[in-house]
Design goal:
The chain is mainly beta and about 450 residues long. Helix content is about 15%, strand content about 35%. It is built from eight helices and 28 strands.
């Protein structure tokens, strides 16, 4: 057994905003006393679908078990945290994964009151949700500006790790603009604050505040092999969370916009080949017909370097910025075309119906795009399934699947729609797919 080493951390001697105690020693107690009443405990109870044993599909086994067939649902309970952002209306910011699958949500405040909460809206793509309680005498947190954060700034995390209510930890901002692509299911828009302030299970949805007691992030995830804190935690920046929150309160969902382009990062080789002075920006590789981008006059080969005067570092940043704009909103794009910089105005378009197409994030099918067959089913002998419409070059299944394949079953469960496909493939580490390719059919295993 290894021996743990304890390293004494320096006190916040040079941090006047942290406050001081009666003894004159530096302390975070005044900050904690101010912010804690706005941080709540969120407990949920719900049901989830359990994976069905393929044997239960056999008529013999169904006759044998009769009415005693194993239940396909099980009850789950979860604990998390939340932050009161509007005391008058009882609005609470938390994570989508905290309240997902919840049939009942209970909020506990620091003064030992409990309230039933209702979901105002949730957005899996940013892992942000808004819930509401009907209560008086609530305390709301002061909103900060996460765009002013710098690596090295001190921050404090408040929440309920492992069910230990009203826990406070401190640390610094370890990094900004972090992405955990493929590691957090469904979360596509990622711009995390990385911190070494201890974040553990149960902290999700809690507050990350600066030394002025201003909310700068919503604690969301940890990077750990054991499930416990190893000094690498992540929070959604409050500026991003606030944009999502506004739409959730207004619409109950996020109306996410698109330009209708495929983009990629500007690599050193691309920058040299295109004669670009630097590598910042998002390179447009394809413009969809009749899209907002085509109507605005954008072309493949254009490099978008700014949106409304704010620099764009890479393809992911452009997707994030446009994805948080409302449909119909006009944006001003700074574009480099053939070495010349020009300004193009575009009206943000509506994202295609996600019920008919999807890009798989995480797992053996990460980077695979699928869509409904629709009229194209006639090309495959009226077969039912989902059509593989795209395969990323670095996708795990790139050497196995190809555009045009039709996936008819996942782990021996027939799939006839994108929704069924997502349910069957989600969260699985090993997949058995039945695939139609032209006039042939084959089984493939992906891990």
């Amino acid at each position: 057994m290894g021996v743990a080493t304890v390293v004494m951390q320096p006190a916040f001697a040079a941090l006047p905003d942290a406050g001081g105690s009666e003894s004159g020693m530096p302390t975070l107690a005044p900050l904690v006393q101010k912010v804690s009443p706005a941080v709540v405990n969120v407990s949920t109870r719900g049901t989830i679908e359990t994976e069905q044993n393929p044997l239960m599909q056999d008529p013999f086994f169904r006759r044998f078990f009769g009415d005693q067939m194993p239940q396909q649902q099980r009850e789950v309970r979860a604990l998390g945290s939340g932050v009161i952002v509007n005391a008058d209306k009882g609005y609470i910011l938390t994570n989508n994964h905290v309240i997902a699958n919840a049939d009942e949500i209970t909020v506990g405040t620091t003064d030992d009151r409990q309230f039933k909460a209702k979901v105002i809206g949730a957005d899996p793509e940013t892992d942000i949700a808004v819930i509401q309680i009907d209560a008086d005498n609530l305390t709301q947190v002061k909103m900060g500006d996460s765009s002013t954060l710098r690596t090295g700034d001190y921050v404090v995390a408040l929440g309920n790790p492992f069910g230990l209510e009203h826990t406070v930890t401190s640390g610094i901002v370890s990094g900004l603009g972090r992405s955990l692509s493929g590691q957090i299911r469904d979360t596509r828009i990622q711009d995390f604050i990385q911190t070494d302030a201890s974040i553990n299970p149960g902290n999700s949805g809690g507050a990350l505040v600066n030394l002025k007691g201003e909310l700068v992030g919503i604690n969301t995830a940890i990077l750990s092999r054991s499930g416990g804190n190893i000094g690498i935690g992540f929070a959604v920046p409050i500026n991003l969370a606030s944009q999502v929150m506004d739409q959730l309160i207004k619409y109950g969902e996020v109306h996410r916009g698109v330009l209708g382009v495929r983009v990629q990062d500007v690599t050193p080789d691309i920058a040299e080949a295109m004669g670009l002075d630097d590598r910042h920006g998002a390179l447009i590789s394809q413009v969809s017909p009749d899209s907002a981008a085509e109507k605005a006059g954008l072309n493949a080969g254009d490099v978008v370097t700014e949106v409304d005067g704010k620099p764009i570092g890479d393809a992911a940043e452009l997707a994030k910025v446009i994805g948080l704009r409302e449909v119909g909103e006009q944006v001003k794009l700074t574009v480099v075309r053939d070495g010349e910089t020009q300004t193009i105005k575009a009206k943000v378009g509506k994202r295609p119906d996600e019920a008919t197409q999807a890009t798989v994030e995480g797992g053996p099918l990460e980077g695979i795009q699928v869509g409904e067959l629709d009229e194209r089913s006639k090309l495959y002998g009226q077969v039912e399934g989902v059509l593989v419409t795209g395969v990323s070059r670095d996708a795990p299944a790139a050497g196995t699947l190809q555009p045009g394949d039709v996936i008819t079953s996942v782990n021996r469960q027939p799939v006839t729609s994108v929704a069924e496909f997502n349910r069957a493939a989600s969260g699985k580490d090993k997949l058995l797919l039945h695939v139609r390719r032209g006039n042939a059919a084959l089984f493939v295993v992906l891990r």
